[in-house]
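[job 4417] fold queue: 2 targets
>>> target A
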Amino acid sequence: MYVRAKKALGQHFLKDPKIAKRIVDSLVLSDYNENNKIDVIEVGPGTGVLTQFLANEPAINLKLVEIDSESVEFLKIHYPALESSLFEDDFLRMELDDIFKGEFMVIGNFPYNISSQIFFKVLDYKGRVPQVVGMVQKEVAERLASPPGKKAYGILSVLLQAWYSIEYLFTVDENEFIPPPKVKSAVIRLRRNSRESLGCDEALFKAVIKTSFNQRRKTIRNSLKPLIGGLVLPESYLFAKRPEQLSVEEFVELTLIVNSLKETQTT
């Protein structure tokens, strides 16, 4: 299903139902059925190209969040059974605890200009979000799925890979959208890994990552100076590396070192 609707928040509407079906089928639902449903929230359903397939999936208890009023009216008309599950709201500002009491999955053709913010919000609920399937700008997908040592590897790569296994599933050509974006898109899948704890202070972990990548061309020894000030760093192979060379585990190790230094400073 596709009808013309105005573009909202950088949204481009997918016109090929085969691709839409492939995106929905990327959700791994083998642990769920009509007697054991999983809550799923579709972000930015637009005119329902994904919704038409999600609504027919017996293992899914579907919620929709759409900020564009024209799209909301379209969805109410064409999916009346979902009206009580449709939220005209900004996903980034929603209190998801008010909607979901247990686990929930996230899916959508994410608006390009807020896709990174959507993933940061997912991290806020990482203990309750076992899976995310999203279509984003190709470069964003490559960044999120990138292993250490690659140019695309960055802040969000590390933060997400600490908690999720990330798969780059397939590329979608720009001509599959109305209006066509100027870039290619890609579909990625995030599946929660078995990590229950980082083993370090999570807020400091984020600060170490962000500070390191703010000067990504420098070695860790130099890029961390804004965070550690004049503290003397101990000997470690980590400080001779650049941030894109460090794995999640090495950032955890680095965080423990920085934490130890800060504790020494305060005693």
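>>> target B
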Amino acid sequence: MRGIFFLLLAVHLLAAMVWVGGLAFFVLVGVPLARKNPEWQLASALGRAFRPVGWGALAVLLVTGPLLLAHLGVGWAMLRGDVFWEGAFGRTLFVKILLVAAVTALTVWHDVRLGPRAERGAASAAVRWAGRAIGLGSLLIVVAGVALASGY
């Protein structure tokens, strides 16, 4: 069982690295380069290229997260009880779940509605806002994960 937990945790962390690292690359390298060279249409090209990688990483995170909880003994019965959510682990997990839901919803909105509009030249403040919120939310999810692993 310990080997399975280790493997799940490693895969979960690698997927988080891909997700957060991809976002960081886009913000720190792609966006500034795209602004300097708008004729390259780099932002939309990078967005299209990262989409399957990012969604793959997000899918792995959404599968491995609950599996990791199950290996820690956190099952549906425990999640339905009020006592679980009153403890530090439960409160931190609740925050992480809310952040994951928000980031996933924002990512869907960004990729399905905002991204295609931006590719047609209708870039808006909503695209920038959503991207920043996804990035900040993703970093907060990492912090919540570290807090869970540290017993907070």
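[job 4417] complete. Note on B: The CA atoms of residues 51 and 111 lie 8 Å apart.
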